[in-house]
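worker-3 :: picked WD40 repeat domain-containing protein
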Amino acid sequence: MKKSTFLAAWLMLSGTAFAQAPITFNAKGLVAISDADLSASAMVDGNRYTTPGTRDQLTYVMFPLNRNGQSIGTANLSNSMALTDKVLAVNNNGRLGFVIEGRGQLSDSLGTIKGMADFPVTNTMFILDMSNPQKPAVKYKFPTGTGGLSAVTIAPNGTSLILASSEAGKELKLIDIDATGKPTRVLTAASPVPGVGITDVTFHPGGQFAAYTTAAGEVGLMKYVIDEKSKKPYVVAHGKPVKVGTMPGSGKFTADGKYYIIADGKKAPGTGGAGAGEVFVIQFSTDDTPADAKIVSQLATGESPEAVAISPDGSMVAVVNAGQSYQPFTNAAAGKSEVALFGLKDGKLTAGGKATIDGIAPQAVEFDRTGDNLAVGVAEYLDYGIRTGGIEFYKVTKGDQPSLAKQPGRISVTRGVHAMRVVN
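worker-3 :: tokens ->
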């Protein structure tokens, strides 16, 4: 090819195919955490397949992206993909991050495990300064008592946290923080369901209530109250919880607070799979007079649902399903998972489009601020050699039966990504 012909062809391509960015996501940033301690298939065969020197990590992605590395910052901190995506909370301006460890790290020299019980239960919360997204840094390492932690949620005003715990009689930690994220007061409260551990907790958008999930598979609402005399917060059950299954994951409120969405995996992933799950729409009463929680609608999901996301306008729900992607690489089902969309109107779910993910154990999903795009955190891939996780992106077509199409680019992150939060 003549040089002039080649140049003309290159200019033509650069003005068409190269003009479109491979990733579109309408947000200021996206924060993710990764657990590098084990492969997803370790839950079946016990093999960790660790890479010496690779450590658990937080990644801060800034949009729009560029290829010179300046749009991504990282910090090392311990976390565990054995928990749900609610182990990460970020304040509204994205300057503070809160990560609960839940399970401690193991030495690289330990090649196999018998089960998740080999990872020590911990009660540590890491507080990060992310005011410089290119260099996020752990500012405080804060112990919260005994018993393992399972979830953290931050109030809309950014000054209060609630942590879910397995500590008997102190299943809830109520923590006030200052402008730097430093805890200024720590109080405890018993589970709204006496003697039952709390696995998930979520502040209501109004800030005066919080939803909780119990180890018995119930979802309920509690009122978050500030005592007029002591100015100390406390919580009180607000109506009775409702049973949603045997292995509910993490839940989220619609932006208007009318509905709470949560998926149930039915049973733990294993050698024989887990079967189809379900996604539930729950309605709580936030009136002064308590009312019992109730299920408004429910629909089947794919196998092993891991996390849900709700579009900002409340019209769509996304669910990521692990399927049997976590099986050892020699299994025919390994490496295939799914993201599915549902329409949501007046509390009723309708099935929408879905897409197969060529990746293992997606455990996190988030819409951007316009609801036009979706980010999915994938723990790892059927890769040999250097193994990473990834954040993949999908274009959303809105409607009563929404659909999605995969965007061509993805962000490589430390393997084991399992929680994400959007910064707008």
